[in-house]
Description:
The complex is a heterodimer of chains A (257) and B (14).
Chain A: E1 2-6, H1 10-19, E2 25-30, E3 34-40, E4 46-53, E5 59-62, E6 66-71, H2 72-79, E7 87-92, E8 98-104, E9 111-117, E10 126-127, E11 135-140, H3 141-151, E12 157-163, E13 166-173, E14 176-182, E15 196-199, E16 203-208, H4 209-215, E17 224-229, E18 235-241, E19 245-251, E20 254-256
Antiparallel strand pairs in A: 1-5, 1-7, 2-3, 2-6, 3-4, 4-19, 7-8, 8-9, 11-15, 11-17, 12-13, 12-16, 13-14, 17-18, 18-19
Chain B: E1 2-4, E2 12-13
Amino acid sequence: MLELRLVQGSLLKKVLDAIKDLVTDANFDCSESGFSLQAMDSSHVALVALLLRSDGFEHYRCDRNLSMGMNLTNMSKMLKCAGNDDIITIKADDGGDSVTFMFESPSQDKVSDFEMKLMDIDSEHLGIPETEYHAIVKMPSAEFARICRDLSTIGDTVVISVSKDGVKFSTSGDIGSANVVCRQNNSVDNKDNETVIEMNEPVSLTFALRYLNSFTKATTLSNTVTLSMSKELPVVVEYKIAEIGHIRFYLAPKIED
Amino acid sequence: KAKQSSLFTFFKKA
């Protein structure tokens, strides 16, 4: 038996909006520690890892570990039927073939339940080693989204370079080229507006912009985003989900032949 | 020209 009650149901709606275009089907894993998902896009270039910790739920009951295969397009259709202020409860029976999403309006005068069929998904779970990253950049998520969107009108790939001067995003295409440099700044009044660069070693990596643009659909989940990079390793683009967890996207770099 | 790598190059199946 599984019963997870999330008061801020809009978070789950936003999570689905952030990942449904990258991944079609995924297993949601439920354990004592939380509600999580790890899934790759069909080309095995990008991976999303979601964690919603059990202590972030108002009520969290998971009698035994459960993996529930869901079609994210269908799940998103159902969650779109929840109001933004609704409380969402996820319910499932052990060994059952369906999951129920219950939506309660804040004043409790409307209660809906939507039952969705589960599916069997052969997912390839990857072991992601703990890594010391050469450079970690924390910046406003809206700024990162803006840069990715702007540069994708010029080129298909972006070179992200971190040096002591700042973080540089460069692209080029048929019509020309572009560079955006963000320097470290300290905002006294608002930490969310800060760009903070921790660098042990300069690092420069090339990525396909269309994936980064897809990741920025998570911008609504957090005011800040963290980019963690090491030479010849996938970048980690992390959005914290207030008080409850995170969504991390891993993107394999483009490497010179 | 830079070639797109796969996640399998970096991460092993668990």
